[in-house]
Amino acid sequence: MLGFDVREPADEAIRLLQKKEKTMALTRRRERYSATYTSETIDNGGRIKIETASPEVLAAIHDFLRFQIRDHETGDPLTIPN
């Protein structure tokens, strides 16, 4: 979770969001070759399957997806179904 006071100027909040996103992107970039991405078309759109044997890469991907869900306010669940 990002920590900033809502009373801070908007540019500070944006800076913190960009810093968080950049950190996640660097982790994904550093480890990009240890994950495979497969896409497929399904009836109602598409699906991307991401596979990795690296717990660090998996955590970075999950963190990034949770960040995107929050940032874009999609309403999707933040937990991974079993």
Walk me through the topology.
Elements: H1 10-30, E1 35-42, E2 45-52, H2 55-71
Antiparallel strand pairs: 1-2
Helix pairs in contact: 1-2
Features:
single chain, 82 residues, disordered N terminus
Describe what you observe in this structure.
It contains two helices and two strands. Mean pLDDT is 77; it is low at 1-5. The longest helix is centred in the first third of the chain and has 21 residues, at 10-30. The protein is globular. Helix 1 (10-30) packs antiparallel against helix 2 (55-71). The protein has a two-stranded antiparallel ribbon. The chain is α+β, with helices and mostly antiparallel strands. The protein has a domain at 52-77.
In short:
The chain is of the alpha+beta class and about 80 residues long. It has two helices and two strands; from the N terminus they run αββα.
Rg over C-alpha atoms, rounded to the nearest angstrom: 15 Å
Taken in chain order, the helices and strands follow as HEEH
Mean pLDDT: 77
| Distance, first to last CA | 23 Å
Strand content: 15-25%
| Alpha-beta content class | alpha+beta
As residue ranges, the low-confidence spans are: 1-5
> Into which percent range does the helicity of residues fall?
40-55%
Number of helices: 2
DSSP strand count: 2
